[in-house]
Amino acid sequence: MPISSLRVRRLKMSDNVTNELLLEHLKAIQANLGHVANDVTDVKTDMRGIKEHMAAFMRSEVSQDSGIAQLTLRVERIEKRLSLSD
């Protein structure tokens, strides 16, 4: 059955619906949308915090990798001086 005929059928079935009932449902939908909007804002805020935390973690990891690389070079130089390299 095409969607357009479903819409017409629904309209015919809802002839008894009053404007007050429609308004009541629209207000409930609007209130729910307000809650959803608040939830989305909260999720965005949480995501921003997570992204900042991940960025700080990545900076820390890069710093540690740099320190490890420097230590590796120093150990290699020491091994060469002592003729301990493989």
Quick overview:
This protein is mainly α.
Distance between the termini: 79 Å
Total individual domains = 1
Mean pLDDT: 85
The count of helical stretches stands at 2
Q: Strand tally, please?
A: 0
Structural class: mainly alpha
Keywords:
0% strand, 86 residues, rod-shaped, 87% helix, mainly alpha
Task: Characterise this structure.
This protein has helices spanning 3-13, 19-82. The radius of gyration is 33 Å and the shape is rod-shaped. The chain is mainly alpha-helical and 86 residues long. The chain starts with a helix and ends with a helix. It contains two helices and no strands.
Layout of secondary structure:
Elements: H1 3-13, H2 19-82
